[in-house]
Amino acid sequence: MLDSLPHLRPSAFPPLERARPRILQVNLGRLCNQQCLHCHVAAGPNRREVMDAPTVDLVMATLERLPFEVLDLTGGAPELNPGFRRLVRHARGLGLRVIDRCNLSVLGEPGQDDLADFLAAEGVEVVASLPCYLQENVDAQRGTGVFAASLAGLQRLNRLGYGAPGGALTLDLVYNPQGASLPPPQAALEADYRRTLLRAYGIRFTRLLVLANLPVGRFGSTLLSRGQLDAYLALLRGAHREANTAAVMCRDLISVDWQGLLYDCDFNQMLGIPLGATGGTAPTHLRDLPRLSLDGRPIAVADHCYGCTAGQGSSCSGALDSHVVEGLGRGV
After folding, report:
1. Does residue 320 fall inside a structural domain?
2. Residue 326 lies in a domain
3. What is the CA angle 133-137-140, rounded to 5?
4. Distances from the Cα of 73 to the Cαs of 95, 102, 130, 134, 192, in angstroms?
5. Which residues are registered as beta bridge partners of 98?
6. 65: burial class by Cβ within 10 Å (0-12, 13-18, 19+)?
7. How many domains does the chain have?
8. Tens digits of per-residue pLDDT, 194-222?
9. What is the CA 298 to chain-centroid distance, rounded?
């Protein structure tokens, strides 16, 4: 796989500083039952990088010692980690919000028959990947049969109360473009999703989160191999909006990889850019976190960061600014 990092630095992206960390985002490994074209983690069924039990224990101890408010679990498919449920129970017992970044098809995997029931019983917030409401687009990006499996997963979650209007179980869907373009305005696309999914499949959800594809991992490698990386970076830089820097996810989030190493965000993790707040070049480990003073410290940036500030902006919680001029979604 081609490495996009040499093309992302040096960078003129504006300096960023941390606020108090509220969110611990933990990548439980790169094992996944899917192998998606856009995946910045380059996850798949043959990946063997999985967080071990002692590191899961360290995550739990960290949640006890530090005042995090949210545990955000990602992967790969985080649910395939043997420690996933133990970690969820522990965090919920501490009163934390827990987010599961779910690919939906994992709900039908062997041995996961009760996964949806577990998520509902623990009050876990589900952020579910569904990059389109059309079968041909989803299957082209994520693999044949994934659309049908995703719908089955959504319908199962709906039966448990996820996505019900006014209900307590949050079900957010995630859209990302098919290729080297910015996503369309979030509010208008959410209306299309609601109308189509309800009419065709009886599916309800809480919110649609619109994310840009960052030139990292498998997607970055694809752009390089097609000679499109420079044009895509120019698109992102040209659509940069300074106001979005105030709300980017890295300001109050710590990213932890499957080995327990710390990063400013999941994208920096995949690029191997260490936590900028320490001022060093070597990775910092989760065991060191209680001794670090992060408030007001710098965040490591490179040109991929323009993907989070371009147009309406993009973060783990979707668009940063829903009031965007039309036309920003044009491709390169």
Report:
1. no
2. no
3. 140
4. 16, 9, 17, 27, 28
5. 71
6. exposed
7. 1
8. 999 999 999 999 999 998 999 998 889 89
9. 22
What is the extent of the structural domain holding 139? 5-309
Q: Which residue has the tokens 């910045």?
A: 40
The answer to the question of residue 315 being in a domain is no
CATH code for position 22: 3.20.20
153: amino acid identity, one letter: G
Which residues are within 8 A (CB) of 310 and not within 5 positions of it... i.e. 6 or more apart? 182, 212, 235, 236, 237, 238, 239, 240, 241, 244, 328
**CA distances (Å), origin 54, targets 9, 58, 68, 76, 287:** 35, 6, 20, 19, 11
Strand partners, 97: 70
Phi then psi dihedrals of residue 101, to 5 deg: -85, 95
pLDDT tens per residue, range 218-246: 889 899 999 999 999 999 999 999 999 99
Tell me the pTM.
0.92
Whole-number Å distance between alpha carbons of 308 and 15: 14
Separation CA 77–CA 72 (nearest Å): 13
Kindly state whether residue 319 falls inside one of the protein's structural domains.
Answer: no
